[in-house]
């Protein structure tokens, strides 16, 4: 009878029991991950700052012709600089055996050698520091199981590129130690700088992604602006090519070849651009042709930037519009910096500012591309304010 009573239909006037069923908590997919993401972003931000610093020091090393002052690659023992007069004499003797000393710096004194030595040593030391910061951070987060799903290989990839960058750096320096060379090969310099910007790009992208919850990214992607995303992707690719071209210009001091604008000398096209044999060498070693290609790519980048800006300015998302506006503004600034650098024959302060401008433009393009993919949708209430 008791069992039959339990099965009787419940009256609509009967009180519901007080026992509550468990309900999914909003944001449960990201529960416990906020602190981990914050720590990861701090780690990535530190790596980003260090890579920007090494781009700056690397630029100063190139502009001061210091890159060949250390003629050996000792990843571990090279971290300790000369600490005695005898050690300095050994380093100086090694440099005196290099083609750069024989052909360009005959008679250099020890004080002058120390100035170029410290730039290259600082450059290499920063590289070691970046590798150490990555390794300690990656190992620490992995052991603490603080790496979000899907990010393990991504972070490992950054470390692999950092290691590869060290090898490419020595490959670059080694080219300048060959007979008849007084500087590194321009295409190897381009590979070295391009890899640095690739590392910066990955760090920036992961930093932006970790700033939003996964559930927010999934929802934001439904509002993605596909055409703006495509335009920003094209701008990113062309911008990267322009960075490589700038490295080719820097590698052969082509920025000092034609201190005129908008013409190159007396004409639009540089005179005698294909004198070297075989012909392909001109695209890497002829100062006039290399600078001309860099200029033309700059014009194309600005034109594409305006086209993408016109589309981005119609975005319904305020932060996306602001990001696109920032890209166009920096494009104009960077172009002006390039013109000034050429007109004044690439003085050190102008050239290094132009290089750092490329870093800022690169990051702004990536941020605008990210917001085109994952827009921050504003509520009606925030728009009214």
UniProtKB/TrEMBL annotation:
A UniProt-annotated Pfam family: COX15-CtaA
Q: Which residues cross the membrane?
A: 40-60, 126-144, 151-173, 185-208, 228-252, 292-310, 322-346, 352-372
**Its principal location?**
membrane
Q: What is the top EC class of this enzyme, as a single word?
A: oxidoreductase
The record's listing under InterPro entries reads:
COX15/CtaA_fam, HemA_synt_rhodobact, HemeA_Synthase_type2
Q: Does the keyword Amino-acid biosynthesis apply?
A: no
- Write the record's keywords in alphabetical order, separated by commas: Cell membrane, Heme biosynthesis, Iron, Membrane, Metal-binding, Oxidoreductase, Transmembrane, Transmembrane helix
Indicate where this protein resides in the cell: Cell membrane; Membrane
- The EC number(s) given in the record are 1.17.99.9
Record field: catalytic activity: Fe(II)-heme o + 2 A + H2O = Fe(II)-heme a + 2 AH2
Q: How does it sit in the membrane?
A: Multi-pass membrane protein
Q: Which cofactor does it need?
A: heme b
Query: Which residues bind heme per the record?
Result: 294, 354
To which pathway does this protein belong? Porphyrin-containing compound metabolism; heme A biosynthesis; heme A from heme O: step 1/1
Quaternary organization: Interacts with CtaB.
Which protein family is it in? Belongs to the COX15/CtaA family. Type 2 subfamily.
Q: What does this protein do?
A: Catalyzes the conversion of heme O to heme A by two successive hydroxylations of the methyl group at C8. The first hydroxylation forms heme I, the second hydroxylation results in an unstable dihydroxymethyl group, which spontaneously dehydrates, resulting in the formyl group of heme A.
Name this polypeptide is given? Heme A synthase
The organism is: Limimaricola variabilis
